[in-house]
């Protein structure tokens, strides 16, 4: 079932006509014409029943003995068949601040995750007749989409940092993850005529029972990465020093002296504290 537009008449003139007929009917009854007055009053009352106030960004879904007749979206005072059933639906954007969910990621680690979804009703017919309660439907399907997304991807990668191609993770691939969440929500909520305007992860953390252990792992990974960078830089500086000494002929070193020099330079460059050198005031060779 798809939405179709229902044209309605402006209700301002009919509002005045209905009031006039009702007051006229009361006057006729007072004048002694009960039947004529009652009929005129009833016509005016029926006209007023057909009036509906539609606010901006609001729609009215109409039915006639179970048949969908159309949706009115023109704002203002409108008039339709008084026998039509009417249901108002807001077309304004709404926020769904999802609650924190405790789920397992792809690697089986328990995590806490929550999402914020901005949505609005795009098809009033589907929202009214395809699901029982479209607001509850959005809440349940949003939670299901977040749970599914958390189970498909890992919170963080466990692979070697040197790998150039790494899998998208919940923590590092925030932009990509939000796009995937929005795409899945759009697919899930299209049945209810809901348009997803924006969706993003609002909370992401390890569950309390493993948060401490994961923090230690992250700290260890940071230390290892820093040490690796220091060693790479130190090796490059030692290689450059030996090459320059050899190229300029400043000093000739045998393999044993080169090994000693490399060892000393690496200790100086890789050490956490400043080295205290021992100066040799004699000759190079004993």
From TrEMBL:
Keyword list, A-Z: Membrane, Transmembrane, Transmembrane helix
Cellular localization per UniProt: Membrane
Pfam families, alphabetized: Band_7 (PF01145)
Bilayer-spanning residue ranges: 12-31, 37-54
GO cellular component terms, semicolon-separated: membrane
Record's keyword annotation contains Membrane: yes
Domain Band intervals: 49-218
Family matches, as InterPro entries: Band_7, Band_7/SPFH_dom_sf
Positions in coiled-coil regions: none
Membrane topology: Single-pass membrane protein
Protein name per the record: SPFH domain-containing protein
Species per Swiss-Prot/TrEMBL record: Dyadobacter chenhuakuii
